[in-house]
Amino acid sequence: MDFTLTSDAALLLPITALLPLTAILLVAQSNPYQTLVMRGILGAVAALIYALLGAADVALTEALVGTLLSTTLYAVALRSSMVLRLALPGGALPPEAISQRLRAWLEPLHLRLELVPLPQAGEPGLHGRLIRLEAEPSYALLLHRPQLLEHLAALPGATNWRQEGHRLELIRSEGPEPAPAPNGGSAPPGEVAR
């Protein structure tokens, strides 16, 4: 049984109204994982409307390609790209409190933290290093990209990180690890090594 817009408008209009509503919610999401769910809902609603209007071939294409395939590819891309990979040059994992502090710091950016003990030379995908400063019981988070440093420094977690005596800096070169700062290891807020 095929529905038509003229005879079955009372049933089709509420379902059709879900399309723009879902599209607006999709665009308004800041969390990429919620966007993934909204994209799946949008495709399912579109496939349902096509099926109700008798376009079974278009509905099947939308369900398979527009919903299933695109959502799966987007999920794989999110899983592989929404991660901050930090090398641990000494090989020892930091205390759980430090790991939790970093995870809470990254949460507003929806990033996962991946600590890589004893990375191979030139290992791809590393965003920086997390090193323990020898003279003090604090850590330095050294990042390769200035843009990433700016994003992290703008979050409230950066202030907490520095208040605890840790450092956040841009990696100057692949040379030796930084020495503790003369003011007790806490770089002033907004200071970036160049």
Task: Please provide a brief summary of the model.
Helices cover 48% and strands 13% of the residues.
SSE diagram, text form:
Elements: H1 9-28, H2 32-52, H3 56-81, E1 83-88, H4 96-106, E2 112-117, E3 128-132, E4 139-143, H5 146-153, H6 156-163, E5 167-170
Parallel strand pairs: 1-2, 1-3, 4-5
Antiparallel strand pairs: 3-4
Helix pairs in contact: 1-2, 2-3, 4-6
Per DSSP, what share of the residues sits in E-state strands of 2 or more residues? 5-15%
Radius of gyration: 24 Å
In terms of structural class, how would the helical and strand content be classed? alpha/beta
User: Low-confidence spans: pLDDT under 50, at least 5 residues?
Assistant: 175-194
Q: Largest sheet, order of strands side by side?
A: 2-1-3-4-5
Total DSSP helices: 6
- How many DSSP E strands? 5
Report mean pLDDT, rounded to a whole number.
Answer: 83
Task: Compute the separation of the termini in Å.
Answer: 69 Å
Q: What global shape is seen?
A: elongated
Mind describing the biggest β-sheet? 5 strands, mixed
Strand-and-helix sequence, N→C?
Answer: HHHEHEEEHHE
Describe this structure in words.
The chain has about 190 residues and is α/β, with parallel strands linked by helices. It contains 6 helices and 5 strands; from the N terminus they run αααβαβββααβ. The protein starts with 8 loop residues before the first helix and ends in a 24-residue tail after the last strand.
